[in-house]
Amino acid sequence: MAELESLETAAEHERILREIESTDTACIGPTLRSVYDGEEHGRFMEKLEARIRNHDREIEKMCNFHYQGFVDSITELLKVRGEAQKLKNQVTDTNRKLQSEGKELIIAMEELKQCRLQQRNISATVDKLTLCLPVLEMYSKLREQMKSKRHYPALKTLEHLEHTYLPQVSHYRFCKVMVDNIPKLREEIKEVSMSDLKDFLESIRKHSDKIGETAMKQDCRYNQWKIIARIFFSLLLSPNIKAQQQRNLDNIVSQHPRISGGKKSKKEACAGSDLEVKNTSPMSEQDSGILDVEDEEEDDEVPGAQELVDFSPVYRCLHIYSVLGARETFENYYRKQRRKQARLVLQPPSNMHETLDGYRKYFNQIVGFFVVEDHILHTTQGLVNRAYIDELWEMALSKTIAALRTHSSYCSDPSLVLDLKNLIVLFADTLQGYGFPVNQLFDMLLEIQDQYSETLLKKWSGVFRNILDSDNYSPIPVTNEEIYKKMVGQFPFQDAELEKQPFPKKFPFSEFVPKVYNQIKEFIYACLKFSEDLHLSSTEVDDMIRKSTNLLLTRTLSNCLQNVIKRKNVGLTELVQIIINTTHLEKSCKFLEEFITNITNVLPETVHTTKLYGTTTFKDARHAAEEEIYTNLNQKIDQFLQLADYDWMALEPGSRASDYLVDLIGFLRSTFAVFTHLPGDVDAHSTMSGKVAQTACMSACKHLSTSLMQLLLEAEVRQLTLGALQQFNLDVEECEQFARSGPVPGFQGDTLQLAFIDLRQLLDLFIQWDWSTYLADYGQPTCKYLRVNPTTALVLLEKMRDTSRKNNVFAQFRKNERDKQKLIDTVAKQLRGLINSHHS
Questions:
Q1: A Gene Ontology CC term for this entry (predicted)?
Q2: I want to staple 690 with a disulfide (CB 3.0 to 4.6 A). Which of 201, 445, 680, 836 is the partner?
Q3: Highest mean pLDDT among 130-139, 143-152, 494-503
Q4: In 380-434, which ranges are continuous DSSP H helix?
Q5: Rounded CA gap, 689 and 610, in Å?
C-alpha cells in the first residue's frame, strides 16, 4: 500500500515539473500552490533539484558543441570593419566634391521653389477672396440696414448670408465669428422691432380718444344724413309734417349746417383696409403713431378712423417674428399688452359724472381701442381672432355698464342725462357699425330712462312750485282779441258765452292753468326726446311717455297742489280759485291724451294702452281744496268765537245780538259771495253757487251751531241766568236769520236752518219753561223738543239751579221762589230718570 502511494506521489511530482517547464511564468502560481498544499514538499524539492542539474548538464554540452563557429564569425567581422572604414572615407570625399559642385544649383532651385510657392499662394488667395468678398459685402449691407433701422430687409439679408454665403467659407475664423453673431443680430432685430411696437402701443393708448372721437363723429354724420333723409321722404309723402319731425329737422340743420362726408360702409372700410395692407409692406419705414389731423378745417370730410393710424410697426413686427419663428410669442405679447390697455381704458375717472366731456372722453377711448382692434383683426391673419375680440368686448361691456350705472346715478340734471343718453346711443351705434353686439347698452338705457324720469320729475316739481308760488290766483283779464286768441292757443278752453262778452273780460281760471298745461306738454316732449334712437316701437314709446306723465300728474303735480292747499297763509279766495283751476285742468286731460296720441301715433283704444290719471289727480286736489275751505271756515269761526264775552250772570238781556257774532255773520256773507265764482258742475262751468258752496255753507252753519252749543255747555260756565240765556238766544236768532237769508242759493226750504235746530229747541225749552210738554212727549216722533237731549237739558238746568240758590238766599221765604225751586228739582229728578231709563 505504501509502495502504491509512493508511485502516485512520484507521478504527481513529475506532472508538476512538466507543467512548470511548459507553463508561462505568470500562471505558475496555482501549480506551486498544489505543491505546498500537499505533504510531500521535501521530496518534490529533491525532484526539482535533480531536474535542474539535468538541464545544466544539457546546456553545458550544447555550448561546447557551437564554440568554434562563434570564434570564426568574430574573426570575419573584424576583417569587414576595416573594409567598411575605407568605403566610408571614399563616400565622404565623393560627397564633399558633389556638394561643392551643386551649391549654385541648390540656390537656384530654392529660389524657384519660393517663386512657385508664392504663385500658388497668390492663386489660392484670389480664389478664397472671390468666395469671401460676397460674404463681407452682404455683412456690410446687413450692418447698413441695421443702422438705418430697415429691420425686415436686414432680416432677409441675414437669411441669405446664413444659408447661401457663409456655408461656402465656413472654415474661416471670421466666418465663425459671423456665425456666432447671427443669433445676436436676430435678437437685436427682435428687440428693436419690439421697441417700435411698444412705441406704437403707447402712441395709440395716448391717442385712442382721438381715434374714437373721429369714428363717433363719422357715425354721427352718417346718422344725421339718415334722419334728414327719413324726414325729407316723410315730407314728400305728407306735406303736413308733424311738429316733432319739423323740430328734429330744424335742430339737426341748425346744429350742423355743413354736414359732409358720412360713415363708410363696412365693405368700403374693409376694402380700404386691404389696400392699406398691400401698400404697407414691411419694407416701409414710416414712423409709428397717429397722423396729424389737428389742423383740418371744420368743413373738410372727417377722415376714417383707420386713416389716422400708421399700423406699419405692427405689420413689420409681425412679419419679423413670423420669419424668426416666434409668431406665437409676438401674438401673446400683443394680446397681453392690449388687455392691459383695455383695463386702463375701461377705468373711468372718478369725476366723470360731473360733465358730459368726462363721459365723451371715456367713450372715445373705448371706441378708439376697439376700432384699432377691429382693423388689426381684418388686416392681419391670426394676430387677433374673433374669440379674442369677443372676450375683450364682453369685459368692456360689463365694466362700461357698471361704470355708467354708478356714475349716472350721481347725475341730477335731466339735460345732462339726456345728453348722456344721446352719447351712449352714438357710442353703441358706432361700435355696432363695427360688428359689436350692443343690446345690453340699449337695455341699460331703459334703466337710465327711469332715472331720467326721476330727474325730470324733480325739475318739474321746482317748475310747478315756482308757477304756483308766483300765481296771483285771480281770473286772467283779457283786453283785446289778440290776447284772447293767444291764451286760447296756449290752453284748450272754449266758452261760447265768454266769447260773446265784450272786452275787457276775464277767463275763469288764473295764470297757472295754461302754464301748468304747457309745462306738462314740455315734460312729454322731454320724455319723447329720451325715447329717440332707442329702437323702441311706437307702442313702447307711448307706454313710456304715459307712465312718466302719470307720475308727473299723480305724484309731482299732486304734491305741489297739496302743498299749496295746505300751506298756512292760503286764503279762502285762493282755495276757491284752485278749485276752479283744477276743474279746467281736469277737462284738459283729454287734450293731453290727444297730444300724446299725435306724437306717438298710437291710438288710445289700442290694447294695453295706459290711460292718463290726470282726472283723478285734479279731483283729489279739488277735494283737498274743498276740505281746506271747510277747515279754514271752521277755523275762522273758531277765531270769532274766541272773541265771545258773555256775562253769564246778567239779569237782563241786551237789545241786540253780540258784536262778535254780528262780525262773524258779516264775514260769512262776504265769504260766500266769493263762492258765486265756483263751478256748479264738474262738466260745465256756471256762475251760480254749486255743490261746493252749499257744502261749505252747511258745514260752516253746523260748526257754528256745534261751537255755540259747546260754549253754552262748557264746564267753565258753572252758573248762568235766564237773562244770559235770552242774550244767547238773540245770537242764535241772528244765526237763523243768516240761514234764512240764503247766503248760498240752492238750498230747498229751511234746510240751512236745520243746522241750528238743536240750539233752537233747547233755548225754546228753557226760555218758555215748557217742561211739561217736553217730559210728556219725550220719545215720541212728533215731540216738539225732539232734538233736545235729556243729558244736555240736565247740564244746563243744573247751571240755572246753582245760580238761583246762590243769588236768592232769602228768596226761599217767598212762596213763588220756593215753588220754582221745587219745580227745578222735580224736573232735574225726572231728567235723571229719563237718562237712567235710556241707559238701561
A1: plasma membrane
A2: 680
A3: 494-503
A4: 386-408, 414-433
A5: 36
Inter-residue contact 508 to 530 (CB < 8 Å): no
48-62, 217-231, 560-574, 717-731, range with the lowest pLDDT = 217-231
Residues comprising the chain, all counted: 840
**C-alpha closest to that of 590 among 493, 498, 490:** 493
Distance CA 221, CA 263 (A): 7
C-alpha dihedral, 703 to 709 to 711 to 712, nearest 10°: 170
Q: What is the pLDDT of residue 605?
A: 67
**DSSP bridge pairs for 154:** none
Q: How far apart are CA 453 and CA 551, in angstroms?
A: 9
By C-alpha distance, which of 375, 370, 368 is closest to 210?
Answer: 368
Give the Cα-Cα-Cα angle 95, 96, 99 (nearest 5 degrees): 85
What's the CA gap between 588 and 611, in Å, rounded?
14
221 and 210 Cβ atoms separated by less than 8 Å: no
C-alpha to C-alpha distance for 384 and 365, rounded to whole angstroms = 19
| Strand partners of residue 505 | 478
Task: Give 3-state DSSP helix, strand, coil % of the chain, rounded to 5.
Answer: 75, 0, 25
What is the C-alpha separation between 340 and 290, in angstroms, rounded?
20
DSSP 552: I
Measured over the CA atoms of residue 77, residue 83, residue 87 and residue 92, the dihedral's sign is positive
Collapse the DSSP code of 9 into the 3-class scheme (helix H, G, I; strand E, B; otherwise coil) and give the result: helix
Could you give the CA distance from residue 262 to residue 796 in angstroms, rounded to a whole number?
96
Helix, strand or coil for residue 505? strand
Question: Euclidean distance between the first and final Cα of the chain, in Å?
Answer: 168
Task: Look at residues 669, 697, 672 and name the one whose alpha carbon lies nearest to residue 576.
Answer: 672
Cell output for 223: 346718422
Tell me the C-alpha distance between 290 and 398, whole Å: 29
**What span, in angstroms and rounded, lies between the C-alpha atoms of 477 and 298?**
52
The neighbour count for residue 241, using CB atoms within 10 Å, is 16
- Inter-residue contact 43 to 13 (CB < 8 Å): yes
Element (H, E) at 168: none
What number of other Cβ atoms are within 10 A of residue 503's Cβ? 11
Residue 34 CA, distance from chain mean position: 108
Q: Which of 226-230, 258-262, 381-385 has the lowest mean pLDDT?
A: 258-262
pLDDT digits (tens, 9 = 90+) for 484-499: 888 888 888 888 888 8
Least confident of 142-146, 468-472, 608-612, 746-750: 608-612
The type of residue at 364 is N
Task: Tell me the three cell numbers of residue 660.
Answer: 262778535
Q: Which of 559, 574, 676 is nearest to 632 (CA)?
A: 574
Cα dihedral sign for 414, 419, 422, 426? Answer: negative
* CA pair distance 583, 618, nearest whole angstrom: 7
CA 583 from chain center: how many Å? Answer: 43
Q: Which of 276, 460, 284, 485 is nearest to 376 (CA)?
A: 276
Please write the tens of the pLDDT for every residue from 613-633. 777 888 888 888 888 888 888
Alpha-carbon gap, residue 675 to 630, rounded angstroms: 12
- Give CA–CA dist 586/682, Å, rounded: 9
Per the DSSP assignment, residues forming a β-bridge with 309 are 290
